């Protein structure tokens, strides 16, 4: 299994689209490591590698929204925060339980589904709004 960005997720703002592609690359690396049964240290490192990029990326989207006085800012930011909380829970579970099929499935289902859903619904709305502006 491979996790990839696809064109239905295009937001239309190049910088944001590039960051989303990078998120999928990091997520895929994590999954490949988990599926290859790499050790806890390597998988933990890749979880952190993904987590750091998520924080940076969310921060940049939030800066864009503030700069443009985006009306959906609060709701959008709340989704980011909820995701980060989930992600931290997942990371903590992984660190305490170690690599397992269950946690691989959880990452697959939750992180990937959340990202796709969020980008498709929330980030594309942001892109559409910004592209309408002069
Ligand atoms: Fe977002």
Question: How would you sum up this structure, described in words?
Answer:
It is built from four helices and no strands. It has helices at residues 14-35, 40-67, 73-97, 101-132. It starts with 13 loop residues before the first helix and ends with a helix. 17% of the residues are buried. The mean pLDDT is 91. The structure holds fe (ii) ion. The site of fe (ii) ion has 6 residues, from helix 3 and helix 4.
Largest sheet: none
The overall strand count is 0
Which stretches of 5+ consecutive residues score pLDDT under 50?
none
Bound molecules: fe (ii) ion
The proportion of residues in beta strands is: under 5%
Task: State the distance separating the first and last CA atoms.
Answer: 42 Å
- Please tell me what the overall shape is: elongated
Q: Note the run of SSEs as H and E.
A: HHHH
The helix fraction, in percent, is over 70%
Q: Tally the helices.
A: 4
> Average pLDDT value?
91
Tell me the radius of gyration: 15 Å
What is the structural class? mainly alpha
Quick overview of this protein structure:
This protein is an all-alpha fold and 134 residues long. Helices cover 80% and strands 0% of the residues. The protein binds fe (ii) ion.
